[in-house]
UniProtKB/TrEMBL annotation, chains A, B:
Keywords: Lyase, Metal-binding
This protein's name: Hydroxymethylglutaryl-CoA lyase
Annotated PROSITE patterns: PYR_CT (PS50991)
Gene3D superfamilies named in the record: Aldolase class I
CDD domains cross-referenced by the UniProt entry: DRE_TIM_HMGL
GO biological process: ketone body biosynthetic process; L-leucine catabolic process
Signal peptide location: none
Organism: Caryophanon latum
Family matches, as InterPro entries: Aldolase_TIM, HMGL, PYR_CT
Single annotated GO MF: hydroxymethylglutaryl-CoA lyase activity
Pfam families cross-referenced by the UniProt entry: HMGL-like (PF00682)
Family: Belongs to the HMG-CoA lyase family.
Length: 300, 300
């Protein structure tokens, strides 16, 4: 009934740290990523090559990629918004690039200042050039359940954007409940629709845990045969343009659920918990992570 | 597929406040319960008539019951461990009493200092006397998924205790994942077993959210036709005798999930959120509640 194996895509160093008010030192980012490379995670999104004016927290993307210790069996990915970003990412040998847009017009406009229709012509050359350079491309679609501006998103809206992104050459799409409002019945409706059109192995789910429903939504996704999930060490992350958005589901909480359900991930929960606690010390604030709190309690 | 209506049993004033280090003033408890009576909740567990030496935080159980404003359509319940407790509870006109024990020997011994077999003869006269006084009796079974001392609990252990409690005259059993370790596959195994033997309307689920799995476990329970759930305003609560136990699932988080899934509860989420924020101010510490955090964010 459930998949036997799930791949976790760690997005904390990008989606998490881009939302921290403070700039985390490059050396601290490198230390975190090197630590994550040693947990069994096979996919780490390390940074974003957006204009540093937009997200100064990740202005050191190139330095981070250049300085981390690259493990052979780990894919090190980064976000790129446009050709300039792609060129910077390719120059430091990124393994995979991710492009991003929204399923809803309101969020797409507020996040990248373009309509959905205007976005594809910008992404087309980025995807083409990345593929020419021998890289795979991942596509993020935000606000797949609801939009902070437009309200509920229809599954058909998500499908239309996904259709176009696959056509442009992305090999996988990450479906984001950006503001963390989704419940299992909505995830069911979305995936019931999408899995009729797309290979389920080409879909990943990206849940924010703003209202505590992320793990219930993960279980619903597993029922639909989804085997790829984005998560963030310590539950870091959010979206600076979506009010009320709190962090991604914590990697360690996701691991606890999956392992408890007998689903393999290849990731060492204890090592991830310890890495989360090191982030808590660095950021000097409590994490949105149940398993980090449990680990702290056991040490006390 | 899911039930259309669910009844929420609010246990915050008892299970929550018994785990606060500080004694909450009687007037503040009364104010909280009166506020909860105005949210649409139809069942509130207001206190516990255990020996005040064990749980000094609830030493004022009789005063609380005497001072609250009783709404006709709300059941005001309390925990009773023995005949002395029952007599105190009946003297102030409690509507329903709850008895409690564990599915595992280790937790039963550490919590009530008796073996499981030794516990029934203590509960028998309590249940009989309560029934004679015209009251219904609820039975709590703790550690239904796992025990902090004995490890995993078998569904057959839970069934054996439930069988005996029903035989003694309880009308409903609340099944507690006391240390909050359960995942949906375990809840599935437990309820698959129990619903073969017991009417599902006689079972309630009581999840702690220690590892973030409570709402996923609620959804699994709904799939088994369970329509009664215990929860705690602001996610207060735990178990003083079970290491690592953090709070019950927050009432407001449970409401958000259920309402989002189109399941009616009759409870006003906004009023519950506001009551939770008032508790946060009173306790001067952040709550284990996602929806309280969302409400705070919206006010900011």
């Amino acid at each position: 009934m459930y998949p036997t194996h799930v791949q976790i895509k760690e997005v904390g160093p990008r989606d998490g740290l881009q939302n921290e008010a403070a700039f985390i030192k490059t050396a601290d980012k490198v230390r975190l990523i090197d630590r994550l490379s040693d947990t069994g995670l096979r996919y780490i999104e390390v940074s974003s090559f957006v204009n540093p004016k937009w997200i100064p927290q990740l202005a050191d993307a190139a330095d981070v990629l250049a300085q981390i210790k690259r493990e052979n069996d780990v894919t090190y990915a980064a976000l790129v918004p446009n050709m300039q970003g792609l060129e910077r990412a390719l120059a430091v040998g990124v393994d995979e690039v991710s492009v991003f847009m929204s399923a809803s017009e309101g969020h797409n406009r507020s996040n990248i200042n373009k309509s959905i229709a205007e976005t594809f012509p910008v992404l087309r050359p980025v995807i083409e050039e990345a593929l020419r350079a021998g890289k795979t491309v991942r596509g993020y679609i935000s606000t797949v359940i609801a939009c902070p501006i437009d309200g509920p998103t229809k599954p058909e809206q998500v499908r239309a954007v996904a259709d176009k992104l696959f056509e442009l050459g992305v090999s996988e799409i990450s479906l984001g409940d950006t503001i963390g409002v989704g419940v299992p019945t909505e995830v069911d409706a979305l995936l019931h629709h999408l899995t009729q059109h797309f290979d389920r192995d080409s879909l990943a789910m990206h849940f924010h845990d703003t209202r505590g429903t992320a793990l219930a939504n993960v279980v619903e996704s597993l029922r639909h045969g989804i085997t790829k999930f984005d998560s963030s060490i310590g539950g870091l992350g959010g979206c600076p343009y979506a009010k009320g958005a709190s962090g991604n589901v914590a990697t360690e909480d996701l691991l606890y659920l999956l392992h408890g359900m007998g689903i393999e991930t290849g990731v060492d929960l204890h090592k991830v918990q310890q890495a989360a606690l090191s982030m808590e010390q660095l950021l000097q604030k409590p994490l949105n992570s149940k398993l980090a709190a449990v680990a702290k309690g056991e040490q006390a």
